[in-house]
Amino acid sequence: MDMNLSNISTIRHLLDRHGFQFSKALGQNFLINPSVCPRMAQQSGADQTTGVLEIGPGIGVLTTELAKIAGKVVSVEVDSRLLPVLEETVGDLPNVSVIHGDILKLDLAELLTQHFSGMDVVVCANLPYYITSPILMALLESRLPFRSITVMVQKEAADRICAAPGTRASGAISAAVHYYAAPQMLFQVSRGSFLPAPKVDSCVIRLDLHAVPPVSVTDERRFFALIKAAFGQRRKTVSNSISAGLGIPKPAVVSALEAAGLPPTSRAEQLTLDQLAALSEQLL
Ligand code: SAM
Q1: DSSP 270
Q2: Is 193 near ligand 1, meaning CB less than 6 Å away?
Q3: Taking CA 146 as the corner, what is the angle to CA 143 and CA 151, rounded to the nearest 5 degrees?
Q4: Least crowded by CB within 10 Å, which of 17, 174, 262, 272?
Q5: Whose CA is nearest to atom 22 of ligand 1?
Q6: CB neighbours of 13 closer than 8 A, spacing ≥ 6?
């Protein structure tokens, strides 16, 4: 059915008819700014040869825009109350499939084989903010051949994700994301662009996945454990936080820092991805 899904009265009418109440716990803030979804869809890089995995379609406002430009769209929605709404809004679109499920529990490899065989795949979503990092990490760690991930996240999360490792604003998520992808800020979206309005502004970011990580590490799991420990206690030096987080005696961490050419007083946010990798190799 053709309706304007970013018009507040259309949305209210639609949701009222379905007796739908927003769930804060599921991060439900629906887009009501008509310019955002076309822009997001365009900048996701999707075209007729591309399959798009969307997470959390809500009432289908972004889904509809993606369907106009992509070969195929598969949208995963956890809230069963939205399924009849989506049936009404996107059910007639021949290149859209809605899957009822939790994105963190689905077998993504299977989903890609089933729906996107032979296609380039991108992710495009207005993410539920309470699980931004777990979703991004699950997508990246899956090592599935996503070309890019274009997502709306809270502004603070966007700043952290895009911060280059070794800069003040960086955190564990910056290092982890930069290992797998080149992140960039696309544009900001004010809190008033959503119904209900969240307490913070948002940003659309795009992660272009690396074919090969920019640093090479012998043991990825250990590297990620080291990143987590290093940033675990932000105000401490890495020698203290890694020693506490990984249970390694402090003198051993200090020697590893020295062997990697790093001062013993280094803090996690001062270390570039190369330096974190060098430290991880020394600690093996
Ligand atoms: N795409 C819609 C929009 O832009 O208006 C809705 C975005 S809203 C911020 C997040 C959506 O993710 C909601 O529809 C919510 O029900 C859904 N969601 C929350 N947790 C989820 C999960 N674990 N798996 C899949 N969808 C989820």
Answers
A1: G
A2: no
A3: 110
A4: 17
A5: 102
A6: none
Helix (H, G, I), strand (E, B) or coil at 99: strand
The atom of ligand 1 lying closest to the CA of 63 is 1
Q: Is 54 in the pocket of ligand 1 (CB under 6 A)?
A: no
pLDDT at res. 284: 79
Probe target for ligand 1 pocket from 3, 4, 74, 79, with the most ligand atoms within 8 Å of CB:
79
Whose tokens are 């272009």? That residue is: 208
Rg from Cα positions in the chain:
21
From CA 149, how far away is CA 205, in angstroms rounded?
Answer: 8
Enter the tokens of residue 28. Answer: 């439900």
Q: How far apart are CA 215 and CA 244, in angstroms?
A: 25
Read off the pLDDT of residues 188-247 as tens digits, 9 standing for 90 and up.
999 999 999 999 999 999 999 999 999 999 999 999 999 999 999 877 899 999 999 999
SS3 content of the chain, % helix, strand, coil (to 5): 45, 20, 35
Choose the residue to mutate in 6, 26, 98 for probing ligand 1, maximizing ligand atoms within 8 Å of C-beta.
26
pTM of the predicted protein model: 0.95
